[in-house]
Every structure is written in structure tokens, then in C-alpha cells.
Design a protein that fits this description.
Blueprint lengths: L1 H15 L15 H15 L2 H17 L8 E5 L5 E5 H6 L13
Antiparallel strand pairs: 1-2
């Protein structure tokens, strides 16, 4: 009797699992040529003057707020209004402009 319930419970756990978890494309999964192309693009992108300015501005604000390098998992995030606010790294970096979403926090 116990084995029957254990089997049903195991099936329910399996069915409830998120089937999409971990299926995103990571750098490790890319072919060597694609990885090389992506890293070259990223390097070029991060050299753009507007990206350098944005990164310097965020790092400066992060240091001033006392959250730079202390492991508190907080970033300084640009808002639509133009000001910088403290926000979790997870929320800030997840907002990447896909599906027509804005890449700036609404504030």
C-alpha cells in the first residue's frame, strides 16, 4: 500500500517540475565558433563610449552607496527618469529589453 502512494507522490513531484528550467542558451553550450563570435561582439560592445560612460557612472554610484564589492547582491540601476537607484542584481540584470520591454527601471 505504501509503495503505491510513494509511486503516485513521485509522479506528482516529477510532473510539477519546471520543464523549462535550465534550458537557456549559455556560453558553455555554444559551438566554439559561436562562442568566439559572441565574445568578440561583447568586447566591441563594451568599448562603445556610451557603454563605458554608463558603466563608470554605475560603478561610481555603487561605490558611493557602499555596495560595490561587498557581496550584498545590489546594483545601481538607471531609471527612466535618469536617476540611479539601488536594486537587486537579479532584477536589474534580468531586464534586458526582450519582447519590446524597456531596458530601464520604471522608478
Amino acid at each position: 500500500m505504501y509503495q503505491k502512494y510513494a509511486l503516485v507522490y513521485a509522479l506528482l513531484l516529477y510532473m510539477a517540475r519546471n520543464q523549462l528550467a535550465g534550458t537557456g542558451t549559455s556560453l558553455k553550450k555554444l559551438s566554439p565558433q559561436a562562442r568566439k563570435r559572441k565574445l568578440a561582439y561583447d568586447k566591441k560592445f563594451q568599448k562603445r563610449p556610451e557603454q563605458v560612460k554608463k558603466r563608470v557612472e554605475c560603478n561610481r554610484a555603487n561605490r558611493k552607496a557602499g555596495t560595490y564589492g561587498n557581496g550584498d547582491k545590489m546594483d545601481m540601476s538607471h531609471c527612466k527618469s535618469g536617476k540611479l537607484v539601488k536594486e537587486s542584481q537579479k532584477a536589474n540584470r534580468a531586464r534586458n529589453g526582450q519582447s519590446g520591454k524597456s531596458t530601464l527601471k520604471a522608478a
